[in-house]
Automatic annotation (TrEMBL):
This is Pumilio homolog 24 isoform X3. GO terms for cellular component: nucleolus. Pumilio repeats lie at residues 172-207, 208-244. Residues 1-82, 386-430 are annotated as: Disordered. Residues 108-525 form the PUM-HD domain. The keyword tRNA processing does not apply. Residues 47-60 have a biased composition (Basic residues). Residues 61-82, 386-401 have a biased composition (Basic and acidic residues). SUPFAM superfamilies: ARM repeat.
């Protein structure tokens, strides 16, 4: 029964399946046909209707676009990573060929260089490779020497080539030496050429550098070539390179550089050059070099030594500008303290001491010296009183107005001045530290003037009679400008006054060969100035040396000192000496200029 039932059921299923298919076919056939879109079918007043799209049509469009995109990117998808790298490399090579005219040649030279620079290569093989490389570079060496690749190839060729080939390379490079000397890569080739150059070739190089030494020394790369040539040259050639840096005349006229003198002092004397002109020229040459930090070369060291040997203001500028006075004390002043007497008696050395004691005094520095200082570095001195007062008044008015507007709590005086200390009203040029404070630290705090006063006491007679030393002892006895040595060294200054008075108190003797201080031209003028400008010294001198002895010294150079008491602007000094001097003046023994006499009487 079961078997029969199964047989009877199978055909039924087939019928159902076929029936379902029929139903699907019939359902498809029942769908209405789509009409083609025709704009004429729509009335004019109604908006146009978009044609109806079946779901199947909508699905085709994205698939079609994807298919098109895949067609356009077929070529890129087919390239592998290696192929893309090769393609990018080819593009880069093409760009380099356009940018570098000798790119292909450089590649050929690089392949030859890899072979010739090996250590285990035979000399014959290396010579062949070098000859081949030089043949390829012939006529193009100056153009390709600036490349980092070609420069290395040329260095190897110059090192191992024959002398004939080396001379050919040298002849081709010499006209372009100055340009190559400033190139970062070509400079190594130039140094190699100098190392292998013969004596005539080296002389030719040094001659071609003439007129360009200063400019090359200012160049970070070019200075290396100048220093290398300086090291390889003989004494005459070194002097030729140095002479250009000394003076404009030596820079322009080659014949002047052939002198035998090597020291700059001797050169100035031999050629009668102006020292101030030499200093200005050397300053203009040295300053840019030092500003760029090019200080390692021995040639620059030599120029600095020669400059310092004739420059009286080098140390003056340092003392005037550097704020770190402790550093100056350790390095400079400690060394100067051992030679204070020699400095005081020396024409140039005394200027350093005088600049500290009395900055920028036209009595001690000539116009050229002041011009070289340019009046911008000497921050050891304050400005003129009139300038300072005018600046203070204007700054006071401005500061009081600004203070009143910004801060009502700022108190001002009746004249409109605020409570700001006067020394802070203007800043010193050349440094941030107050100029008076810098001087005091260099002179007093360092112990320099304490030792200097002792030297003046021990050598008062010699310093007073010296044309140069008299200025130093005068400034010390005065206590320095602005009274900078007071009150710290008052006791020592009194001792110095007494030492000078003791010299004056010595009896006048015609038999003695030693000239009395009052009869010496330099010492009598110095003591006269001290009487006129320093009442404390005048009082000491009068009481210990001249009181009751004026008639003895009323003639000759000594009369200048006696007259100074009458001409003094200090009333106490005049009153002290008037009783003794009046009879000498009335009797015609002591002659006083009429202008001075009438002024004092009035």
């Amino acid at each position: 029964m079961a078997a029969k039932n199964q047989q009877t059921q199978k055909p039924k299923k087939r019928k159902q399946i076929s029936h379902s298919k029929v139903e699907r076919d019939s359902s498809k056939s029942k769908k209405p046909k789509l009409l083609a879109y025709n704009p004429s079918n729509n009335p004019p007043n109604k908006p146009l209707k978009k044609p109806f799209k079946s779901p199947k049509q909508k699905q085709k469009h994205p698939s079609d676009s994807k298919f098109k995109k895949s067609d356009s990117g077929n070529e890129n998808k087919e390239l592998t990573k290696r192929e893309r790298r090769l393609q990018a490399k080819e593009l880069a090579e093409a760009r380099k060929k356009k940018r570098k005219p000798h790119y292909t040649l450089e590649q050929e030279l690089a392949s030859l260089w890899e072979k010739m620079r090996r250590r285990n290569i035979a000399k014959e093989d290396r010579s062949k490779l070098i000859t081949e490389a030089l043949q390829k570079m012939k006529g193009k060496i100056p153009e390709i020497a600036s490349s980092h690749v070609s420069s290395r190839v040329l260095q190897t060729c110059v090192k191992y080539c024959s002398q004939t080939e080396r001379d050919a390379v040298f002849a081709e490079l010499l006209p372009h030496l100055l340009t190559l000397a400033c190139n970062t890569y070509a400079v190594h080739l130039v140094k190699k050429m100098l190392d292998t150059a013969s004596k005539p070739q080296l002389a030719g190089v040094i001659s071609s550098l003439r007129g360009h030494v200063a400019s090359l020394l200012r160049h970070m790369v070019g200075s290396v070539v100048i220093e290398h040539a300086y090291q390889l040259g003989n004494a005459t050639q070194k002097q030729e390179l140095l002479m250009e840096l000394y003076s404009t005349e030596l820079h322009l006229f080659k014949d002047l550089t052939s002198i035998k003198e090597s020291r700059l002092v001797d050169v100035i004397s031999k050629l009668s050059l102006q020292k101030s002109s030499v200093l200005r020229h050397m300053s203009s040459v040295i300053q840019p070099i030092l500003e760029k930090g090019i200080v390692d070369h021995s040639m620059i060291h030599r120029v600095l030594i020669e400059y310092l040997s004739i420059a009286d203001q080098v140390l003056i500028c340092i003392f005037s500008m550097v704020d770190d006075t402790k550093l100056i004390t350790k390095i400079v002043i400690r060394e100067l303290q051992t030679t204070l007497k020699e400095l005081a008696l020396d024409k140039s050395g005394r200027r350093l001491l005088l600049q500290l004691l009395h900055p920028n005094c036209s009595r001690y520095l000539n116009p050229n010296d002041l011009a070289s200082l340019n009046l911008s570095v000497p921050s050891l001195s304050a400005k003129n009183e009139s300038e300072v007062q005018s600046e203070k008044i204007s700054m006071d008015e401005e500061s009081s107005k600004e203070a009143a507007m910004s801060d009502p709590d700022v108190t001002t005086t009746e004249s409109g001045k605020n409570d700001t200390p006067e020394e802070n009203l203007y800043s010193a040029e050349g440094g941030k530290k107050d100029p008076f404070l810098r001087r005091r630290e260099l002179l007093v705090s360092s112990g320099l003037t304490e030792n200097l006063v002792d030297v003046c006491i021990e050598n008062a007679g010699e310093l007073l009679a010296s044309n140069f030393g008299k200025e130093v002892i005068f400034e010390v006895a005065m206590g320095g400008s602005d009274g900078i040595l007071h009150p710290t060294l008052d006791e020592k200054l009194n001792n110095l006054h007494e030492a000078i008075a003791a010299l004056v108190a010595k009896p006048k003797s015609e038999e003695s060969e030693e000239e009395h201080v009052l009869e010496n031209f330099h010492s009598s003028r110095t003591i006269r100035k001290l009487v006129l400008d320093c009442p404390a010294f005048a009082s000491t001198l009068w009481k210990k040396s001249l009181e009751g002895k004026c008639q003895l010294w009323a003639q000759g150079h000594s009369s200048k000192v006696v007259c100074a008491f009458w001409e003094s602007s200090d009333s106490k000094v005049r009153k002290m000496a008037k009783e003794e001097l009046q009879p000498l003046i009335d009797g015609g023994i002591l002659k006083i200029p009429e202008t001075k006499q009438s002024a004092n009487e009035g």
